[in-house]
Every structure is written in C-alpha cells, then in structure tokens.
Specification:
The structure holds 2 protein chains of 2 kinds. Chain A is mostly helical. Chain A is 49% helix and 0% strand. Chain A has a domain of 92 residues. In chain A, α3 packs across α4 and α4 runs antiparallel to α5. By secondary structure, chain B is α+β, with helices and mostly antiparallel strands. Chain B has 5 helices and 12 strands. In chain B, the strands form 3 sheets. Chain B has a 5-stranded antiparallel β-sheet, covered by helices on one side. Chain B has a 5-stranded antiparallel β-sheet with strand order 5-6-7-8-9, covered by helices on one side. In chain B, a hairpin with a 2-residue loop joins β3 and β4. The longest helix of chain B is centred in the middle third of the chain and has 22 residues. At the A-B interface, α3 and α6 of A face α1 and α2 of B. Chain B: GO terms for molecular function: threonine-type endopeptidase activity. Chain B: It is found in: Nucleus. Chain B: Keywords: Cytoplasm, Hydrolase, Nucleus, Protease, Proteasome, Threonine protease.
C-alpha cells in the first residue's frame, strides 16, 4: 500500500456476512433480522465508508511518509509501540480508556464527536459482555 | 489474529441506514431540521473586526426562535457567526471552542484565528457537506485582525468583508456600496447594522434584531440586540376582565382537613397494654 491518499478511496462493496456474523460465522438472525441480499450487496453509504476509514487513511499517509523519509524502521517502531500500548487483559467492560494509546495516536488533547455524543451507556445490552469476551478470546 | 483497532471509529451509528434508504425510496421524506436561514456579516475596520448577525431561526415556513444568538464564542478574542442548520453550527462551534482551549493550554500561547479555521475546515471536509454549517470566523490575534468564511463543504476564503446566509446578497450589496478600508469604529458599526437590516427587511429567512460583536486587540465587546427594528407595539386595548364581571350563583365549601378520633381497644384484662411481638 504505497499510496499517499488523504481521503479514503471509494470501495465497491463485496458481498460479505462478516458484519452480522455470530460465533458460528453465519448470519445472526436473532440479532440482526433475516438476511437481505439487497442490503448486503448494494451500498448507498459513501459518507459511512468515508467516516469509518478516515483515521486509518490519514494514519497510513503519515506512516508512508515516515517510511519514505526515514526508512522502514520508523513506521515499524511506531506500530510496535501502539500494539504494546493497546494490549488489554481486562474484560470488555463498558467504560474503557487508554491514555497511553491516545498519546501515541496524537489524540490526547483533541475532542471529537464520539467523546461527547455517545448515548448513555445504560442503553447497551448486558448480553454483549459474553459475545465480546468470546470474540476476544477466539482471536 | 485480528488485533483490536487502535482507531476510535466514526462515532456515529449507521445501523438505521438500510431502513432509511428503504423509506426514502418509498417516498417518505426525512424530518426537517431547524435552519437559521440567516444574514451574517463580518467586516474589517481600523482597530479590528466587527461581526454582525440577525436573530431569527426558522423551521420551514415557521419562525422557531425570534431572538436566537448566532454569534458563538470560540475563544476570548475569536468569535464565529453561524448560518445553516442551527444544531450543526452550535455543536461545531462548541467542539472547536473546546479544542482551541485545549490547544492553547498545550502550546501556552494565545490562540490564533487560523488554528480555528483549520480545525473547522478539516472537520467540515471530512463530513462532505452533511454538516450544514456556513460560518463567518473573525478575531484579532498576535498576527493582527483576521476574517474568514467557511462553507459547508470545507472551502474557506480570507476577505476584508464577508456575508453568508440567505440574506447575504442584500447585505453584500450594502457592503459593496459603502465599505472602505480603515474605517472608524462608529462608521463600521453603522455599516454592519445597515447590512444586517438590509437582510432583515428584504429576506424572509432573516428577521428580528441585529446582534453585533466588536473585536479589537485589547478586548471584545458583545452587543446583543444592538438595534431592534422589529419591536412589537403595545396593544391598544386591554383584554383583562375586571373582578365581578361574572356573577356568582352558588357557593359550596368543603373542608379538606380530616379529623380522626382514635379509640384503643385493649385485650381481656390480663394482657392489657402488651405490644405485639414481632421479633
């Protein structure tokens, strides 16, 4: 991925069931409703892809420039530090914060919409704890 | 082994997207947001910047707020007028104000207008115009007075006098006729009020009063409701009825105080006064 893109590329969506898969790898009808081919294959969501890939694309740009200017060791060390900082042995309990990772990613003194506009944590289902733990341990 | 993502994510929940697309294909429209449909102006004068705005917020054809505040606080020496969707301008300016404060604490210097402008334009570009905020950003910092305009898609202009909003053409006509460089404060304030008044009287989306804000190197003065060309006249007649207009036909008084008499019933002599054992 030698590109210096600033803005996420527009990807054509491949049909995938990864978004809605349960622990067996199949579509989870209980949580997400019946499968719909139209919903999986077509996409009208340019803004969603753009927003979800924004940070990753900008980050990739910076790491690519580091690589071109300083050599491969520079992005490698940065990613190694991030991986070390993001190790989390705890259960995915709802409030989680990682100041070290925030500092490494450069967002320790920045506020974004996600920081103050998330709905109250009482709205998430308690069953998510088991599903998250399963996903985490099978990784 | 898939590692947990180090990125924070979009912050928005797109799970209703398929449903919304389906509904809009069926012809059911999205709900209308409160828009400001405004006239906002900014102009450079000898000592700094004057920002002006009207005070009407509309929701389609209805006036939602007759006296809303469109000049938002970014830092002590920087202010931002907002046109477009009211919620978008308020939350965007509040977010950038918080980020500017953190940045100023981190650098230890007085905040600059170009910093706020860069933060705003990068955020609006990321959302591709879905955040409907057209802003006029002005302030005086260490490099002098600066005046910028930011469009909803993220493009910016740096100009000595700017207007935005639905009444921008009316206000720009006044500016083009009368603006000249290095005006005095009183003259510049009159010009700004004339421009906003042109928007108030000639545009349906703008109305009510004129707000102004004068920013100089030493201090910032917020002139809320500086001119009120649309005050409601007092009604000519009074519609209060005097006491005794309607005759009283029947009067009934019910006492709401309940009086109780408690009579203790004792046992058969031997167990007199023994309380129940509830241990």
């Amino acid at each position: 991925m030698d590109s210096l893109r600033i803005v996420p590329a527009r990807e054509t969506k491949a049909a995938t069931t990864q978004d809605t898969s349960n622990s067996f790898g199949l579509h989870d009808t209980l949580q997400y409703g019946p499968r719909s081919l139209a919903a999986e294959v077509t996409t009208n969501s340019k803004i969603r892809d753009r927003l979800e890939n924004w940070e990753a694309t900008q980050d990739n740009l910076k790491l690519q420039m580091h690589r071109q200017v300083f050599g491969l060791h520079m992005p490698m060390r940065l990613m190694m530090e991030r991986k070390l900082a993001s190790y989390n042995p705890h259960m995915p309990v709802l409030p989680q914060s990682n100041v070290h990772l925030d500092i490494l990613m450069g967002r320790d003194e920045l506020l974004d919409t996600a920081d103050f506009m998330m709905p109250a944590s009482e709205m998430t289902q308690p069953l998510d704890i088991h599903a998250d733990m399963e996903k985490k341990l099978r990784m | 082994m898939a590692a947990a993502s180090v990125y924070k994510g979009a912050g928005f929940d797109f799970s209703n997207e398929v449903r919304n697309n389906f509904l809009s294909e069926r012809g059911i429209p999205l709900p209308k947001a409160t828009s400001t449909g405004t006239t906002i102006v900014g102009c450079l004068f000898k000592d700094g910047i004057i920002l002006g705005a009207d005070t009407r917020a509309t929701e389609g054809p209805i006036v939602a707020d007759k006296n809303c505040e469109k000049i938002h606080y970014i830092t002590d020496n920087i202010r931002c007028c907002g046109a477009g969707t009211a919620a978008d301008t308020e939350f965007t300016t509040a977010l950038i104000s918080s980020n500017m404060e953190l940045h100023a604490l981190s650098t230890g210097r007085k905040p600059r207008v170009v910093t706020a402008m860069t933060m705003l334009k990068q955020m609006l570009f990321r959302y591709q115009g879905h955040i409907g905020a057209a802003l006029v950003l002005g302030g005086v910092d260490a490099t002098g007075p600066q005046l910028f305009t930011i469009h909803p898609h993220g493009s910016t202009d740096k100009l000595p006098y700017v207007t935005m909003g639905s009444g921008s053409l009316a206000a720009m006509a006044v500016f083009e006729a009368k603006w000249r460089p290095n005006m005095e404060r009183a003259e510049a304030l009159d010009l700004v009020c004339a421009a906003i008044s042109a928007g108030i009287f000639n545009d349906l989306g703008s109305g009510s009063n004129v707000d102004a804000c004068v920013i100089t190197a030493s201090h910032t003065e917020m002139l809320r409701n500086f001119v009120r060309p649309n005050e409601r006249v007092q009604k000519e007649r009074s519609y209060q009825f005097r006491r005794g207009t309607t005759a009283i036909k029947k009067e009934e008084i019910r006492s709401l105080v309940v009086e109780e008499d408690i009579t203790h019933i004792t046992g058969r002599g031997a167990t007199e006064g023994e309380a129940m054992d509830t241990s």
